[in-house]
């Protein structure tokens, strides 16, 4: 099954601030949480329409995360928790954009890592570890990993331009099977860097620091 990779930018601290914040939310966070609950209910209706039962509803998963735990032992609860977490990211971030559709994204980006590594790109700039990084380490409790997805990745905005520059340097030496997707990734990273650079210099309120990726079927 093909998987869609989409992304947006957000302040990682704003996302983490919701996890375990029940009873201590600001008025702005309360308003955001109200929208998240509506989105969670809409996503649950989609699942119900598809006949999918994860053993934990997305609205309940969202409530668990806000309460500070991910303790359901339902077989597919991890998928509900990651979907709910993605709603928190999306509500705190920019409008999402698509990176692309891949039949086996983890396999493809692992092979791309190998190609970039062969050409001398440093390990901290390789894409796979960022795309499949998982949720922020700062989350104060364990969220189980959904083997079958959806998946969450993170790319520090401060590393977007260094990565794009490194890829562009070796682009002409890459195998033909990688050049199109790498060029596309370069363009996305350069655009996000330009937006981040402008905003950090010109907008006092701007604090976004992370590109968040969502990988789902």
Radius of gyration from CA coordinates: 18 Å
Q: Report the sheet with the most strands, covering strand number, pairing sense and barrel closure.
A: 4 strands, antiparallel
Run of helices and strands: EHHHHEHHEHHE
Shape designation:
globular
Percent of residues in β-strands: 5-15%
**For the terminal residues, how far apart are their CA atoms?**
7 Å
Helix content: 40-55%
Unreliable segments of 5+ consecutive residues: none
Short description:
The chain is an alpha+beta fold. The protein contains eight helices and four strands, in the order βααααβααβααβ. It has a four-stranded antiparallel beta sheet with strand order 2-1-4-3, sandwiched between helices.
Describe this structure in words.
There is one protein chain. The protein has a 4-stranded antiparallel beta sheet with strand order 2-1-4-3, sandwiched between helices. It has 8 helices and 4 strands, in the order βααααβααβααβ. With 217 residues, the chain is of the alpha+beta class. Helix 2 (27-50) crosses helix 4 and helix 7 (160-170) packs antiparallel against helix 8. It starts with a strand and ends with a strand. The protein has helices spanning 12-16, 27-50, 58-67, 77-92, 105-118, 127-131, 160-170, 176-202; strands at residues 3-10, 97-102, 151-156, 210-216.
């Amino acid at each position: 099954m093909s998987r869609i990779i989409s992304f947006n930018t957000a302040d990682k601290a704003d996302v983490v601030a919701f996890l375990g914040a029940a009873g201590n939310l600001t008025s702005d966070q309360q308003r955001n949480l109200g929208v998240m609950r509506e989105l969670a209910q809409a996503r649950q209706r989609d699942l119900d329409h598809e006949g999918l039962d994860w053993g934990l509803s997305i609205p309940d998963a969202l409530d668990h995360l806000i309460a500070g735990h991910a303790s359901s032992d339902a077989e597919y609860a991890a998928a509900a928790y990651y979907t709910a977490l993605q709603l928190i990211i999306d509500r705190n971030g920019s409008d999402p954009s698509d990176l692309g559709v891949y039949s086996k994204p983890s396999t493809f980006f692992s092979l791309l890592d190998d190609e970039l590594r062969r050409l001398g790109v440093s390990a901290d700039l390789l894409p796979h570890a960022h795309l499949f990084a998982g949720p922020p380490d700062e989350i104060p409790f364990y969220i189980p990993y959904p083997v079958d997805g959806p998946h969450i990745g993170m790319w520090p905005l401060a590393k977007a331009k260094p990565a794009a520059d490194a890829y562009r340097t070796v682009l002409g030496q890459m195998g033909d099977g990688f050049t199109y997707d790498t060029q596309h990734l370069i363009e996305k990273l350069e655009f996000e860097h330009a937006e981040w650079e402008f905003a950090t210099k010109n907008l006092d309120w701007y604090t976004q620091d992370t590109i968040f990726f969502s990988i789902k079927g």
